[in-house]
Each structure stands twice: as C-alpha cells, then as structure tokens.
Amino acid sequence: MTDSAITTKGLKKSYGKTEVLKGVDLDVRRGEIFALLGSNGAGKTTTIKILVTLSRPDCGTALVGGFDVLKSPGDVRRSISLTGQFTAVDEMLTGRENLHMIARLRHLDNPAGVAEGLLERFGLTGAAAHRAGTYSGGMKRRLDLAMSLVGMPSVIFLDEPTAGLDPEARLEVWEMVRELAKGGTTVFLTTQYLDEAEKLANRIAILHDGRIIADATLSELKKLLPPAKVEYVEKQPTLEEIFLHMTGKEAARKEAR
Questions:
Q1: Which of 10, 52, 119, 159 has its CA 20 to 30 A from that of 138?
Q2: Model pLDDT for residues 128-151, shown as the tens digit of each residue
Q3: Of 79, 78, 101, whose CA–CA distance to 5 is shortest?
Q4: What is the pLDDT of residues 192-221, one digit of tens each?
Q5: Which domains does the chain carry?
Q6: Beta strands of the chain (E only): which ranges?
C-alpha cells in the first residue's frame, strides 16, 4: 500500500479565460497534517473542490485515498469528509440527533452507538440533549468535526476551520485536529492564519499564481531564508499569552501538552 493519501499531477483548471490552477503537483502522506497556504484567489478552494469531487479538472490527475477522482468519485466520497468555513450542523436538532442523522445517512450499523462514542470523544456528552443552536462557536465546531468523523473517513479536508472563532475556541479546534492525526486520519488543512499552519502542520505547501512554489516542513522552509541576525532583546508576551493568562487557560494548555 502506498504511503500517499493524496496525489495530484499537473492539475489545471480555468473558469472562462481565467486560469486558476496551472499545474498543481501534491503528495500528501497518510496520517499527516498537511497545510495548503495561499493568498485569496490563489486556487486553494478550487484545489479542494477537485479533490472532493465537487469540480472536474481541465487536465491532470488526482488520487484521494487511492481512488481516482474522475474514474471512482463514489469511492473517493466514501473515504473522505469535508468541513468548511461554516459549520454544517442543524441548529434545530440536538448534538446527539445531528450525529445520529449523519450515521443513518452513511448507512452505518448501530447509529446510536456511533453517536454516543463521538459525543464522548469530543467532550459533548453533557450537551448532547441540547439543541445545537444553543452551542458556543467552539462547541459547534467540535460537533462539526465529530460529524465529519462518522464512518471513519481516512482523509478529512478542513477549509478554514477556525475562521471567526475566538482564541479559546481556536485552541480547542487545534487540539481536536492533533487528535485526529494521532488516530491515523490524514488532515488536509487550508487556513489564512499562518500561526495555525505553523502550530499544526507536519508539512506546508504554498500555492501562488496557480502553482505550488514550496512544499516542505516548517524547518525546511525556514532554511530558505537568510540566516537570522542574532540579537539579545527582552521577550515580550504575545497577546495570545496575555489572553490565556487572564482567562486562566494558560495552565490548562500546559497540562494538555
């Protein structure tokens, strides 16, 4: 079995006269957190749409979970999950009902048991009987991620997963993403927050003007820059550190590490 969860070669896509992807080559390994970075309009969303079979490339090939996105789209869909910028929870249903519904749609045996297991895994058991519309932003995102794991997909796509979340909720999502990878799930992440990619990703690719201009680990990317000038300065706390200290979350984060 290949070590690659996602492989693309020469992906191209145009909309009218606008050439969005100009030959994208990617190789995402199984069980890693892979971050795709790029400015607005660079082609990140177009790339994801092709990989999850929502759009067809003009040319090139893409394999996801070992399946060709053009020849075996059904197999690709069964092996993946997609979580977008906005949560896909039904706010009129309870957390438990949301999970139960997705398990039934995926035709799983014992959907009630699947729901209970995911509620416990994502720390939502206490709120399971409450309508999702009453959840905080962080809880909705946790429920959204739990719904994404129904059926045990081998690859999960997270498109801007922490957009609009407060700092505490962002940290919760980061921990959930790390847990997914530890469990063997391949995570394909797009984000506008560079610190998010820095904290989470095993490897980072930069998409610019329709092409991948870098694909490496963070330490390898740092070597592309000139050596930093060493200066001795007093380290000032970051706003994140101040926020965590003032809200009492700093100690909890250190314990989690």
A1: 52
A2: 999 999 998 888 888 988 898 898
A3: 79
A4: 888 899 999 999 999 999 999 999 998 898
A5: 4-89+135-228 (3.40.50.300)
A6: 4-15, 18-29, 33-37, 59-64, 67-68, 80-83, 155-159, 186-190, 203-208, 211-216
